[in-house]
Amino acid sequence: MKTDIVIVGTGVSGLYCALNLPRDKKIVMVTKADDDKSDSFLAQGGICVLKDENDYDSYFEDTMRAGHYENNKESVDIMIRSSRDVINDLVGYGVRFEKENGEFAYTKEGAHSTSRILFHEDITGKEITSHLLTSVKELDNVTIIENFTMVDIIEENNECFGIIGYGKDGKYIDIQADFTVFATGGIGGLYKHSTNYRHLTGDSLAIALNHNIKLQNIDYIQIHPTTLYSTKKGRRFLISESVRGEGAVLFNSHMERFVDELLPRDVVAKAIQEEMKKDNKPYVWLSMKPIPTEMIKSHFPNIYKHCLEEGYDVTKECIPVVPSQHYFMGGIKVDLSSKTSMNRLYAVGEISCNGVHGKNRLASNSLLESMVFAKRAAQAICGEIKTVTFDDTIKEADAALYANIEKLKEEYKKIVLDEIEREKQSH
Q: Which one from 235, 236, 265, 344 is the annotated catalytic residue?
């Protein structure tokens, strides 16, 4: 198969990139599961936006402070100053952010000095991603292939000419392309406890390592402080930071508060882990009772409903929560246009690292960052696509190299986990 651009992933970064590419270019999007099974759909809290110029300094400082000042300042500036354009685009695609008296309503989360987060109930990610997916499906130049697993890229002399993978039928195919965009999401499937979908295992990191593509800070992995404690298998259900922004509090086993709930995520997660160890308990308690019942049901209906299904009425009782792997700040190293160290290859969203998050991500910056730099990737490709030619002599991949898929999965997992550990030891 030959196309102009192949995008691996159908979360917000991949979809928004596709929407900003020329309509006269053929685009193939592939995704490892169904097209709505990306972590973008799971995002609860909201999306940050620069409310006005007076908010710039505090927004910049909040992002830097949460990231332990290891952020790329230029990336942070670009993200903040591009935020209003992204919101305008989303409204144009039909996204319905909460409003009060006809104006946007803003909420607050941990480590934010003011309310600057737009939201739709407690399913902001689903609201945004579903509208973007619908818009992409309306494009005649885009083909989406579901349940397709990428196993490698087609590379010659540090140039990427597409990807190799297999579909539902197990047959391997090449998708040759002038440009390739990795929008493959996070790495939560590598961890026992994670808020991510289990199929997100960081395969593109292993592929990058095998092709000497530069990575950055891949040991910077965020633990979310509050996921609903469960002994069931599968991903953990996130209890959004927004609930603490609206007044929810944490208690230890003695029903004593032990931390400022609005500190950065890594600080709160560490405090919870220390309390669990001290009390020899597998969880701590979160109380949403300080939040008015009507607000819980209107602002957090999904959390309210899910907890009821698990046997907890958050309007009347505390719920057990535990920290879980949540987000990946490191990734494939990219420049300010989301270009990797390999020609014709871009990376956007959680799998990329432009340094905007530093060592720890500020709440509700993920959807924004993903879209800001996905659009910049599309713009860079638009400029570059006029000047490149495709090498028609590229050989088709040898499917026999990838025949033992279970062995390959384990190899990729080991490559990524070993590199994360090596990076940890290098600090």
A: 265
